[in-house]
């Protein structure tokens, strides 16, 4: 199988897993958890998983792999750079809205913020993401950014990008696990217990499995040296030569 | 800074984070959770986090990076391959013991097994790890294994290795988060609630932060093409030429 065909198969899988994750988390919040509102109630909390999975995971993952599409390699990089920055900005905005949803809910219900490990990992992911976007914008999109700075920034940007995705997956998994324990308590609140694996538990666990699979496919696409845009490959002569002059594009 | 010096700094960080994670989880189980036993009680459960963090995360991570030490590149690969296999086998044995600890505890306490997302992710990690070890042993250590099979297996082995580490990190984080919610319930069981961040919560959250940092450093070491043993680099001519003949070493 050619490397390019394998790339498109992986990308198709990536798109499908992302869509399935968003569908699954939306179904969970809307059908099993009662739907959405922005009123400080549990219905406001329901925006949190939907916005975080859609923003911090799926759109983020899509935004991360746009440079890898071989069809775009012969084209000017700028439109793809702008698409990357736009997708990441949208992803960041949705993530921040997702944080607002849970903070508002906690404040209205007098629940403490940022004490659980899930919240520590999640807030670190969003903070690093905001920093990454701002430094990436200044370094790679502002014309006044020096080439030497871009060269230095590039490997850090790539590594931090993958790391944020790993944090995002860990935050999603711990959050889903925690939520299922909170809501499926059994007799005390009239639900079936999580341990008897009712339909909602299977849905939540399947969402977790989809999220992990999505993260693995995105990281696989990012890690494959043969799928990196030729002017970006580590150790690639073209990159090194361009890196020393004005042709470096990112 | 030279690439080799950076490698040793990253490795030092990797070793330090691994040791700190094991120390932290041991301290948690022994001092805050009452110590260890193998009698079906909560003290048997306490082996679970210690064995999983030590086996499935830290020893696994150490085992994954042994090929990356530049000092070894001029040497025969076989002893390093044996060290890799031995570390991974020890890691697998500890992980299986860690699963036995929690299954025994659940069975003795009449708690269901394998219903939570944490358990789904964890059991998948251990099952894939066992498969990876067995196939890796057959493919890379048995002399009768065909070179063509080794060539085919190599990228799958490397990718699956990183994926198991990601699963392991997600399982650890969701497990620690879940355990802290279970044990720090506040008034009903006479503890301070998790939400008031008592010392045990800070210890557990810090353990989670150490685990994530360890995972990121290991994945960073594995992802750096310049730190891959020369005969293993993707697209490396030596590898390609050797791969076609009898000199391929893994």
Automatic annotation (TrEMBL), chains A, B:
Sequence ranges assigned to domain Cytochrome b561 in this UniProt record: 13-223
GO MF terms held by the record: metal ion binding; transmembrane ascorbate ferrireductase activity
Cofactor(s) in the UniProt record: heme b
Signal peptide range in chain numbering: 1-20
UniProt membrane topology term: Multi-pass membrane protein
Top enzyme class: translocase
Listed transmembrane segments: 48-70, 82-105, 117-144, 156-176, 202-223
Catalytic activity: Fe(3+)(out) + L-ascorbate(in) = monodehydro-L-ascorbate radical(in) + Fe(2+)(out) + H(+)
Compartment(s): Late endosome membrane; Lysosome membrane
CC annotations in GO: late endosome membrane; lysosomal membrane
Coiled coil: none
Keywords: Electron transport, Endosome, Glycoprotein, Heme, Iron, Lysosome, Membrane, Metal-binding, Oxidoreductase, Signal, Translocase, Transmembrane, Transmembrane helix, Transport
EC number: 7.2.1.3
Domain of life according to the entry: Eukaryota
Quaternary structure, from the entry: Homodimer.
Function: Transmembrane reductase that uses ascorbate as an electron donor in the cytoplasm and transfers electrons across membranes to reduce iron cations Fe(3+) into Fe(2+) in the lumen of the late endosome and lysosome. Reduced iron can then be extruded from the late endosome and lysosome to the cytoplasm by divalent metal-specific transporters. It is therefore most probably involved in endosomal and lysosomal cellular iron homeostasis.
Protein name: Lysosomal membrane ascorbate-dependent ferrireductase CYB561A3
